Amino acid sequence: MKKNILVTGATGNLGNATVAQFRQDGFQVIVIVSRGRKTKGQFPEDVVVYEADLTNEDDTTTVISEVVKDHGSIDAALLLVGGFSAGGIKETSGVALSKMFSLNFNTAYFVARPVFLQMQSQTSGGRIVLVGSRPALVARDGKNYLAYALSKSLLFKLAEFLNAEGGSSNIVTSVIVPSTIDTPENRKAMPGKNFDDWVTPEEIASTMAFLIGEKGSVLREPIVKVYGNS
Ligand SMILES: NC(=O)c1ccc[n+]([C@@H]2O[C@H](COP(=O)([O-])OP(=O)(O)OC[C@H]3O[C@@H](n4cnc5c(N)ncnc54)[C@H](OP(=O)(O)O)[C@@H]3O)[C@@H](O)[C@H]2O)c1
Prior knowledge:
By secondary structure, the chain is α/β, with parallel strands linked by helices.
């Protein structure tokens, strides 16, 4: 039987490559997209699509219980939703902080919580992947993106707590840390850069496939920096 993998942020740059990778690897791919998002023709027919506003806890909890009811188990969950904002201490108000916390932390926590509890009820446990960022790890890189970096930094701590709790149930949470991803938006925003130095969505997706797959099954508490040459 196919393993069930849940992917959030599946319509994004990394999401698209991730869906393709895990379909190719034989998973049943289940995606959650934003409420009202038009997805006609976006995914192959075997990809199961649910809708939720993942910044809303009730909406998210409901959709995860529907996924469990319909599919029985969640073997892995890749929580890719996130967003960026610039601004150092001078520009970063509480409102700006809340916005980034909601998009980068809450969207992950609201999914991770019911998914983790579901995985605790499965004898096989499960795998969760969160997406961090370099500015969250290196203050010099993050000082001009304060709200973004602070919100992403919480994901590393969340992974530690989930690993402390999940170790005995074979639930492993990883954080994948991309540098600049080679996306159309980044090419437009930074036309002077050498795009070859950037990591591609496909490279990140295949790294996640390693983490989730048989070869990565011995890994514990992984923080994987996918920086390419940048
Ligand atoms: N791009 C980079 O250079 C870079 C670098 C380091 C880390 N990252 C991280 O890598 C991850 C993927 O990046 P990306 O560039 O692929 O992002 P992206 O293209 O901007 O995609 C973001 C995804 O999140 C979804 N989303 C946003 N708000 C949502 C909500 N409330 N409910 C449900 N879905 C929601 C979007 O769906 P809709 O479009 O339908 O809203 C979209 O599918 C993010 O966590 C990002 O922070 C990116």
